[in-house]
Amino acid sequence: MNHLPFPTSHGGDIYSRHVTFDFSANLNPLGMPEGVKKALTEGMDSFSHYPDVSCAALREAIAAREGCDAERIVCGNGAADMIWRIPPAFRPRRALIPAPTFSEYERALLTFGCEVVRYFTREEDSFALREDFSQSVAGCDVVFVCRPNNPVGNLAARDLLWNLIETCAASGTLLVLDECFIEFTGEKPLAAAGLPGDVILLRAFTKIYAMAGLRLGYAMCSRHETAQRLRDFGPCWSVSVPAQIAGVAALRERGFVEKTVSLIAGERAFLAEGLRGMGLKVFSSRANFLLFRCGLPLDRLLLREGIAIRCCGDYHGLSEQYFRIAVRTREENRILLNAIERCVKNG
């Protein structure tokens, strides 16, 4: 096994620095639903038991919502758990990944000795995948695509996506579609059942239900045997009792996702307009975060005021002039915009 190719760098670090307002982690500004909090409080006595290794109740609840056979569903310690199971489970020799995108795909693949081919998107295309992306699949054992893509927030066009699915199916290439932010877009997510070829859909409770500390994600597979391999390469008890309780309770929520989508759409537009009013380049997003460009070291300047944002200099295809910010509440967003404006005016 190789050494990790580069250090872990993600948003949400509120432990090693003083942070009052965290815009570096892309979580639901509404916070964890009250129904989930109540379920966790009422279920505390069960925390002393080992978790259900099969996550049976949770998988059945997910299956009911997704319209998917529970045997196709694998639950884990966040979507990252699923990402890190894929290389040892399928031993790909060559992988295709767009750039920029979420770094854990490449970290996991390189750690297990897989060659990574990067497909660089272009700023002039707003970092969107181009029609020739499917042509790059040839010779690859696995393809990772994040939709909406992190850190840009754009969605692959539906016709391009289906072309990719069919190309991977024809070539026998495993396709991993990370849809951990899909609920924020209001877009209808894909269904694993009926997809051609070997497809893994990644979803998470982390973002939409603001459950990052509980760590809960899952994979839905187009093939039963793919789901079984993911199970075989995960540790026992990877999903805690609190996480399983929280997941089932979250799926009982009614109207929470719709309320979130409405809030995010309005606040995302508010942030984008404010940033563009300062002369900053802002990229179109469908997610609960925005990517923009600024020539100042904004992450360091804002941290002096207790505000954390994500510098994207460690993303392939970007530089330290690119920053990602989460969409928060109006009060928080106004505080962020005022702080950025002060930085821009002072140079």
How would you characterize this protein structure?
This protein has 347 residues and is an alpha/beta fold. The chain has 10 helices and 13 strands. It has helices at 34-42, 56-66, 79-90, 104-111, 158-171, 224-232, 241-251, 256-277, 298-303, 330-346, and strands spanning 21-22, 73-76, 94-99, 115-120, 142-146, 174-178, 199-204, 217-221, 281-283, 289-293, 307-308, 310-311, 322-326. The protein has a 7-stranded mixed beta sheet with strand order 2-8-7-6-5-3-4, with helices on both faces. Strands 9-10-13-12 form a 4-stranded antiparallel beta sheet, with helices on one face. It has a two-stranded parallel sheet with strand order 1-11. Helix 3 packs parallel to helix 4 and helix 8 (256-277) packs parallel to helix 10 (330-346). It is globular, with a radius of gyration of 20 Å.
Question: Secondary-structure map with pairings?
Answer:
Blueprint: E1 21-22, H1 34-42, H2 56-66, E2 73-76, H3 79-90, E3 94-99, H4 104-111, E4 115-120, E5 142-146, H5 158-171, E6 174-178, E7 199-204, E8 217-221, H6 224-232, H7 241-251, H8 256-277, E9 281-283, E10 289-293, H9 298-303, E11 307-308, E12 310-311, E13 322-326, H10 330-346
Parallel strand pairs: 1-11, 3-4, 3-5, 5-6, 6-7
Antiparallel strand pairs: 2-8, 7-8, 9-10, 10-13, 12-13
Helix pairs in contact: 1-7, 2-7, 3-4, 8-10
> Strand content of the residues, in percent?
15-25%
Identify the overall geometry. globular
Mean pLDDT: 95
> What's the count of strands?
13
Structural class by secondary-structure content: alpha/beta
Largest β sheet strand count, sense and barrel closure: 7 strands, mixed
The percent of residues in helical segments reads 25-40%
Distance between the termini: 46 Å
Spatial strand order of the main sheet: 2-8-7-6-5-3-4
Radius of gyration (CA) equals 20 Å
User: How do the SSEs run, as a string of H and E?
Assistant: EHHEHEHEEHEEEHHHEEHEEEH
Unreliable parts: 1-7
Q: What is the number of helices?
A: 10
